[in-house]
Amino acid sequence: MIAEIDPTLFNARVEEARANIKLLQAQLVERIAQHRLAGEIHVRNKQLFADMATSEEALQQSRAAEEQAAAQVEAVRAQIQEAESRLVGDEANLRYTKIFAPMSGTVVSLTARQGQTLVSSQQAPTILRIADLGTMTVWAQVSEADIPKVRVGMPAYFNTLGLPNRRWNGKVRQIMPTPENVNNVILYNVLFDADNPDGALKSQMTAQVFFVNGKSENALVVPVAALQPAKSADKGKEDRSVGATTRKQQGRVFLVRVLKDGKVEKRQVTVGISTRTMAEVLAGLSEGDTLVVGTADNGGGQGRPAGTPRLR
Question: Is the pLDDT of residue 95 over 60?
Fold first, then answer.
């Protein structure tokens, strides 16, 4: 229990309803007795009428009295049922004076204070806010251009401004269908949960979120700048913007320039998953090869070393 409303008035209504039920139950006993008496009088009058010892009018009056008594019994029973229903409502209102937390967690804000008057005729007032800080829900805003790439169950991770080197992992739980318009930019809220055992994450923190669209373990990677479109591929120029996608050019063939024995030679490589800066090499290079990056292609190998492929 987190709060309690003064129950004096509600207790009084409950006690009044219970007393009313007892009164009606006593009246029911009285009406039943009257009905029994009216029935016995009517039976006696029938016998007397059969013996020609009473009038037909007396017999009819006794029958009407018996029926009236039976109706009064049913009326009192209906009143008892009505009173019991009213008692159920009064007891429910009495229970509402004790407010229980809907979940276990930590009180993160107090809106109402002890002794404050709350008006709930139009909407339920907020008394306090409770949060389960053991598991935090991340609300990530994704632009309409990227939302088709996000799917439920997709791995995601994030870091915060205060802890940029720490990573929290999760999986996409829900994609909200209704977007928000922020400065004429359509953004969709994507929700996923992250464990927070040490309480490092707080409510309303700003997070930088990354969605994992593809993954490769122990991959041989090269700088994206070292990739050149293959002449046999008409769409090579589009594919060279490797940082724009991850799966689009997976399995595509590119050209790289390799420095070997002081000379530059071109070599075809097959590219797998890539990011904006690095690309996975599926075939065509070995770890330790020296790549050359340059804009001129005069056969003399002009350019600058771009580094060596390495495993990640």
Answer: yes
